[in-house]
Hints:
This protein is of the alpha/beta class. The protein has 4 domains: 4-245 and 283-296, NAD(P)-binding Rossmann-like Domain (Rossmann fold), CATH 3.40.50; 304-461, Rossmann fold (3-Layer(aba) Sandwich); 464-505 and 587-710, ATP-grasp fold, B domain (D-amino Acid Aminotransferase, Chain A, domain 1), CATH 3.30.470; 507-584, 2-Layer Sandwich (Dna Ligase, domain 1). It is built from 25 helices and 29 strands. The strands form 6 sheets. The protein has a 7-stranded mixed sheet with strand order 9-8-11-10-12-13-14, with helices on both faces. Strands 24, 25, 26, 27, 28 and 29 form a 6-stranded antiparallel sheet that branches. α3 (85-95) runs parallel beside α4 and α23 crosses α25. The chain is flat and about 100 Å long. Residues 253-268 have low confidence and may be disordered.
Amino acid sequence: MWTAGQLQSIDRMLNPRSIAVVGASAKGGYGGRLLNAVLRSKDRVRIYPVNPNYDEIAGVKAYRSIAELPEAPDLMGIVVPYHQVLDVLKQGHDKGVRAALVISAGFAERGTEAGADLQRELGVYARESGLRVAGPNCLGLANVRDDIWATASSRTLGGLTGHIALVCQSGATAFGPFLLRAVDSGIGLSHIISTGNEADLDFSDFARYLVDDPGTRVIAGFVEGFKDVRKFISVAKLAAERAKPIVLIKIGRSESGAQAARSHTAALTGADELYDAVFKQYGVIRVQDYDELLEVSQLLAHSRKPKKRGVAVVSHSGGISSLTADMLGLAGLELPALTGRARDGINGILKDFGWAANPADVTGFARKEEFAQIMDHMIEEPEVGTLVVASAGAGNQPDQVIALRDRTDKNVAFFFTASRNDKALEKLKHANIPIFYSPDKLATGLKNLLDYHAWLAARASGEREETPAITPAQRVALDGLRAAGRSSLSESESKRLIGAWGVPAAREIHAHTQDAAIEAARRIGYPVALKVDSPDILHKTEAGVVKLGLTSDDDVRAAFEEIVANAARYVPRASIKAVSVQEMVAGGVEVIVGIKYDAQLGPMLVFGSGGVMVEVFGDVASRQCPVSRGVALQMIDETRGSKLLRGFRGKPAADIDALADTLVRMSHMAVQLEGEIAELEVNPLMVLAAGQGVKAVDALVLLLAPAPQT
Length: 710
């Protein structure tokens, strides 16, 4: 998916030894700002302004054209009118340039067909020529670690360098709120990259490069939309293998929202919920705002794998510690009670002042030398993996916290309660102590840290999501149904198809007359259900072509006549294959399982509780296909209905193992039949008692129309 040349071009962009600025200007503007920024590193990087109107700019020799340059620069920054950009790229390619940064605007963002066409042409040329392009319509990038700023932003602020790489589609966001907040908060960055319109290189390409960068511990991103979500997922999988977190703000919507909701499955999840599901599946941490992105990234970059999930809180204030504990509890984090050893040790210091508990209120001892001993007592608790100091950093406290961090193998975080101008804060920043300024963001950060490492551990110990090849029998089943030339299958046809993937269905017999229906009911055994089996009636309940719980021959005779008449009224020319006489499946838990295809994410598995739980409360879980058995079990546990499946108020537990296996097989089916089916839904799927399996009571499959012959 990524070529060596592509990654080498990105390396040249971020580690250039020479930079040409085409469109450099002495009059300011973007050309002037880009030149001034790169000149900051002129003692380490050779700088070549290119503009035929100047002999020199800012004391540096200028060149009339790219052809006149004494060498092919590692990076070519372009700030010329949009209609000249492609010609400049071609001149650069002729010179031997292999990496370009296009600051120029006037492409697809204009909203015109001409602008979009020109951007497409630029992207095609970049990929075919091997001169790879960042932008257009971006503000550039910065190697903060080496103090090389190839940006047209007016902000090239110095600050702490660190291990967080920031990749933003919005340049104004990257070099605006993110950079300013990072400097103010003492959060060190390794790189800042704005990708702009992404005519060629996109967010995923830069993230892929950063996965290999040993100095980057966390990839932080601001994404409006992915050009290719599956490429991003490939990066996320690789980042997981390297234990390198990806933290994202994701805005925008998927194009799949326009899909018609012909089945429950298609309507149960919106595009944003699907992104949430996929991020969770691949360990991507989604956050909501600038501060959260930076603070969570800083925590991940400077924390160890937690030894335990327990959190201990110590503060100089009972109110602060209580509110902090409240936020941690709401986030689902554990604050284990102190053992007698710790409680006695802390009480021996406090002497009836404060409160030796978790959270601890140590009053005035927060500014005394004994505070170090109090922290030791708390962090050494066997169920504690992280200590939170919620304080104003008074006295010698910053040094004590830093010393504790350096000598323990557990994590330390600080909830700072004083002014951000306080001198104590500077010590903590320079020591890379993770700092939070509100208890809710602290709780969110710790929850993400714990969940990320738990996800890594589960992924390392579990099986991978792999799809087997479709079997000849499965292909025969699909081809046989497609031969009918219809896009919608009847219930019995749909059940036949899922049966080829090992999903059993409730027993049924087709009947064409009332007498045949009565005979079928006797063979199956009362009570039974009657349904019209038609590919033209997708929602049978609305059409009045379903009758349940029939207990006698007379019931069957009357129901047969009624549902056939209702079918004729609902769809006058409906193709009625038969009336299906089905067993009533009793004693199971009703769930829904479906497959939908998102325009960007591809095949998605949707699982939900049955009945009103899914209709009213939207009690569903989604994942990209295929899923492993472990992921299937996670999906089940995410729903509120999992309580019913695991046994509730004396009822026996359902066959969760069989349900998980069914979810895995249907996820394989979704991948194998991508491009063949549009939607698939089993609703309801009855999960029987443990050891008795599952049964599909109803199913709906919609096929994609075959591609027109050319």
